[in-house]
Amino acid sequence: MTITIIPEIEQMLNHLTDEFGQEKIGPLLRVSERWTAKHPGYSASAWSKAMVLESLSFLDEEEPYWTFVAARIHLEESYREQAAKRKTSAEGVYKDFASHVQILTEKGLYDPRLTIVYTTNELEKIGQLLQPKRDQLFTYIGLKMLMDRYVARDFDKTPAELPQERWLIIAMTLMQNETENRLEKIAESYWAMSNLYMTVATPTLSNAGKPYGQLSSCFIDTVDDSLQGIYDSNTDVATLSKYGGGIGVYMGKVRSRGSSIRGFKGASSGVMPWIKQLNNTAVSVDQLGQRQGAVAVYLDVWHKDIFPFLDLKLNNGDERLRAHDIFTGICLPNVFMEQVDARGEWHLFDPHEVRTVMGFSLEDYYDEKRGQGSFRTKYEQCVNDDRLSRETVQAIDIMKRIMRSQLETGVPFMFYRDEVNRRNANKHEGMIYSSNLCTEIAQNMSATEFESIQLEDDVIVTRKKPGDFVVCNLSSINLGRAVPADVLDRLIKIQVRMLDNVIDLNMIPVPQAERTNSRYRGIGLGTFGWHHLLALKGVRWEANEAVEYADSLYENIARLTIEASMELAKEKGAYPLFAGSDWETGAYFDARGYEGLEWKELRANVREHGMRNGYLMAVAPNSSTSIIAGSTASIDPIFQKSYSEEKKDYKIPVTVPDLNSETTWYYKSAYFIDQQWTLRQNAARQRHIDQGVSLNLYVQNTIKAKELLDLHLAAWKNGLKTTYYVRSTSVELLECESCSS
């Protein structure tokens, strides 16, 4: 029997054989021969799909390179599909970039600005930057995720872009307003992304260059203690969720259940009904039809509603008091943790009553030094004032409820508010009450206050006093690729510029968020691939060497990031609130013990020229984008060396990056790692990060309460700002795609 091999397939098999060798590709050749014999009249597309599945069946710890074989086959199929659409050959799909941009703009798939701010001649020059061979850097799952979820899609939902075009369109979008050497900056941005040295946040990856959506990752609101404020906040949450943002909401100012309203005692229903409302908003307002909204709500541990708040996500009890689609976070002052450690008493108050009786808001204070400060002074005044009603409980009982919820649901997240505010570079302008959906953002916050509503010239005009509504603009370094390539200096310069440009390009549909974004110009440069890098370096996770390496590496990244922002300030001006900040006074550098000639010079330059960005670094979870870049997530250890990545519509086998006979000894599963080593690493890392880190704790579901308590106490004592999920082996958890960068 004669087996017909169509030319495209024969060419593909020859490419694979040349790249991987006859011996390694032998199994695929034999499978292909059997398959083509059974499927007369087959198409190249049918063959590709079958061979991808076969390639993945070979993928295991012994043969991890098969993910690249599957990726090559998938790439060839993508090239053929685009060639048919563009009426060219598979080899020519990348050759006419200017025409590609014009066509997709006319179809309404690209933002018209791309053909307005760039001339045809410029588009042709930009197209020459494309490096098709960099498509071969993708693993199969990375390529599939990028093509399925992030490239521009036609109205029939089929891809209209190829990977290198997505990187180049992002670079063009972010650099469109640059006035000097714009094409060089586009080239640098493209170089950084296409080599997978970095990733941009999911909203930027998905929406840049398209006529819809916004580019920022997530937002944080502070809810005012008024009916108008509560409903206005809900509307803002819905608006931002619609455009793909993850939302953090601080509810600590809202009065508790049983509080008075206009002097009528016991009238308030507390925070729970409003959180239920946010839960419904998250479910009903989805993110561009792709996924439900994601909202995290934070509450102070001294708030009278803390116990029902801690039970919000439990699967038993009164369903009227549950909000299963919301995520919870607890704001913890040092004095509470001291009482937990000492097995002491803790007092719960109504924030409205404290404001009314005491004349101050307890949440507006923090301990300026460890063991002393204004929060504990104000808290003790409340404890000693008989005019205030309160509930007195054992601090350890609250912690028990926290840990019970964490083992059942993974939350609440922990937010150590005193440490966060002590390290706040902009404490001269405000207060940080809570964090975002993924606990890595720490920026000044305040409530937007309703003032009046009236009819003017037959138009209803609402007046509000804007608060600080936090905006997170994220991007992350791929440590597993950028550090071995020794490109951090070059990379961080362009990365900070890209992030800073997001601030000016974004059209945020909530005015106070846009105002806050422009006042602080906050960015969040982060990292992923930490475990990947340790394995490449031959460093064990549970070793002092890993702690010391985290300290030195992140100090270097911090210095380069500060320097890049300072250089941008020289060029474009400092952020509006720089005067009086810890950046200007030098307190930022003193608090971290930065010494040596390089740091002294940088400190002097910052004082003279300013900082372009008021907030600089934040380490996000990076679950999706680390997969695209072929590395390990965030600063987390791996789950397993070989596992299946499961999404809504597929299940794909995956091996950890660069797995071989040498690195295998340094890839230890998260659930078998002593988490105290993770905390020590993060304490070293956190010193150099002005915002926060999405730090997960991985525990067995058989962990004893005392062991989990010891981890929380160690996190607090080590000066961590936050911890993210407690990931138990029995809990399924949601990743925030908005914060993936």
TrEMBL record:
The keyword Ligase does not apply. One of its GO terms (biological process) is deoxyribonucleotide biosynthetic process. Residues 599-621 form the Ribonucleotide reductase large subunit domain. GO terms for molecular function: ATP binding; ribonucleoside-diphosphate reductase activity, thioredoxin disulfide as acceptor. It is an enzyme of class 1 (oxidoreductase). It holds the Pfam family Ribonuc_red_lgC. This is Ribonucleoside-diphosphate reductase.
